[in-house]
Specification:
Order of helices and strands: EEHEEEHHHHHHEEEEEEEHH
Structural class: alpha+beta
Shape: rod-shaped
Radius of gyration: 34 Å
Helix content: 25-40%
Number of strands: 12
Strand content: 25-35%
Number of helices: 9
Length: 277
């Protein structure tokens, strides 16, 4: 009995020594936990607990077999595929900020892009991305993960787009594309900042030969154009590219010729495309 991990006290009492007391076992029997399971199955309970190690950004699932207050057995396993663990990992991630698993700027641009597309075509089925959907999507991704590092390797932005289905996704690409093509077959990204018009930014030479302002949504929405000098600093920001060519280019050209004499600055920007910079 004295060497057994488990025992039953059949006879016990209290012994006092002055102001102190102690429990003394007079008769005991060594037992095995399996005996309790066989004899009293109705008193045996299985419990599950989700554990979060914040320092390591890791979740796990602890399973216990209990007889009353006694833990007969316990084991720890991976949290992958466990709904409660996914919710806990998602809450931990959202508490830290989504910057822990994605680029916040790209997420903001995606939200604005979807919002704008939904505004341009209400029938496209492109509901804006709200906080509830963000939480649900993070939880969905967390189902396949046990650590924050694994969740970080998931593609949150792609998952948010995929939730809208292939038809709505195709409509999103048609209304608010990620890139447009400039003269000289150069593709440039379209940016969708919150609270400002969508824009493209590229060297001014990349827009030579372009007589109309670039637009999206089938030409319904003109983009803001940021024309960059060789230093990559804007020399003009406009949503009226033809007006810039006709009214302001001559003045801007004089300054560019002075500051960047090694570059070719044609007098007629529409008669050429992307000369050597």
């Amino acid at each position: 009995v004295q060497n057994s991990e488990w025992l039953v006290a059949a006879d016990a009492g209290e012994r006092r020594h002055g102001t102190h007391s102690a429990v003394v076992v007079h008769l005991a029997s060594a037992i095995e936990p399996d005996w309790l399971i066989d004899l009293f199955p109705e008193r045996v309970e299985e419990q599950e607990e989700v554990l979060l190690d914040e320092a390591r950004g890791r979740v796990s699932v602890l399973s216990r077999l209990r007889f009353g207050q006694l833990a007969l057995a316990e084991s720890e396993r991976s949290a992958r595929g466990h709904g409660g663990a996914a919710r806990l990992l998602a809450e931990h991630t959202l508490k830290r900020g989504l910057g822990a698993i994605c680029d916040p700027k790209k997420l903001d641009e995606l939200r604005e892009r979807v919002r704008l597309a939904a505004q341009l075509d209400p029938a496209a089925g492109l509901t804006p991305i709200d906080d509830a959907e963000l939480r649900a999507t993070v939880e969905q991704l967390a189902l396949e993960c046990a650590t924050l590092d694994e969740l970080r390797r998931q593609d949150l932005l792609a998952a948010l787009i995929a939730r809208r289905g292939p038809r709505a996704r195709a409509r999103l690409d048609a209304l608010c594309p990620l890139h447009i093509e400039l003269p000289g077959r150069k593709r440039t990204p379209v940016h969708y900042p919150e609270g400002a018009p969508p824009f493209v930014a590229s060297f001014i030479q990349d827009f030579f030969g372009l007589g109309a302002t670039p637009a999206i949504a089938g030409g319904r929405l003109a983009l803001q154009v940021q024309l960059l000098a060789p230093s990559r600093r804007p020399v003009q920001v406009t949503q009226d590219l033809p007006g810039f060519w006709s009214r302001h280019y001559a003045t801007v050209r004089q300054e560019l010729c002075r500051r960047y004499p090694r570059h070719r600055w044609p007098e007629d920007p529409l008669a050429t495309t992307n000369p050597h910079r």
